[in-house]
Structure formats: C-alpha cells, structure tokens
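Worked Example 4.2. Consider the chain below.
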Amino acid sequence: ILLLIRNPKDLATSFYHFSNGLSAFPSYESWDDFFVAFMTEKMPWGSYFNYLSEWNKYADYENVMTITYEELKENQALGVKNIASFLGVSLTGEELQGVIGRSSFQSMKNNAQKTHGMLGSILFRKGGVSDWKSLFKENQNEEMDKVFEECIAKTKVGKKLKYEVYCKA
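Applying the procedure from the previous section yields the following structure tokens:
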C-alpha cells in the first residue's frame, strides 16, 4: 500500500479550490466557511486528522509505504526510486527519467484533459507547496497548529509531514 499524504494546510487549501470547482461537492461561500467545516469534521469524507490517525496504526507495516507530497516535490527522483524499490520494481536510468518526466506536475497538468477529462482542470491547479499562506488568517493558522499538535504531531505519520518546515508561517 502506497500512502501519499500532504500537509493539512495545503490539503485544506487545495480541497477548498477543488470543492468549489466541482459541482458534485458542496461549495463554500468563503474560505472562512470552508475552514470551519474542515476543522469541525464536516467534510464529505470526514476529518483529515482522523484519517491520518487511522493510517498511523499501519505506519510500521511492512506492506505500507508512507510518502508525502512535499517529499516528492523536494526530490522527485529519490521519491520515484523509493517507490519503485518498495514495489520491487527495478528501473534503468532511462526508465527512471521517463517516470519522472511523465509524473511531474506540469506533465500531468498538460495531459489532464486526456487523462482525466473535464476533471483535469480542477485536479491540477498549481501543484506547489505553501499555497496555504494565501488563504489562512492568523487565528486559523493558530487553530490548525493546535489541532495538529494535539492529534497528529507525535505520531509517525505526523512526523513524516515535517509540519515545522511546511506549515509554520
């Protein structure tokens, strides 16, 4: 099982834009409305913090590899190598470069219409890290920091997220 996780602030920001772009999801009048729903577990699939807590139970399982979106952004080649190794796949240098090229955010965004149809433009928005800084207010930032610290920070999955690096203003 390959578990790909993302820091909660960027995840919330991304999901806010995704929800407002897809008619099948509830849309939100404002970021503030979305943030309240996100923090009070009123999201279509529940609480992200509970989700991370549940997966933390399996963090040490031999057949589970946890990798973060941020890790892949930091060093895509290393991420692809680690995933291939975990899956027992041996890649030549040329194959590695091919996977890296086809799995880059820009490549996936360029091919989104072909691979994901109408959802493509909604799924592939920016592809960056730290976009949360464009939406979070100081009190929201503090509230998420508190919940993260209480619920996830000391877990293996929480430590993997490098919250101090990606989620501190």
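Residues 8-21 form the longest helix (14 residues). The beta strands are 2-5, 65-68. Compare this with Example 4.1 before moving on.
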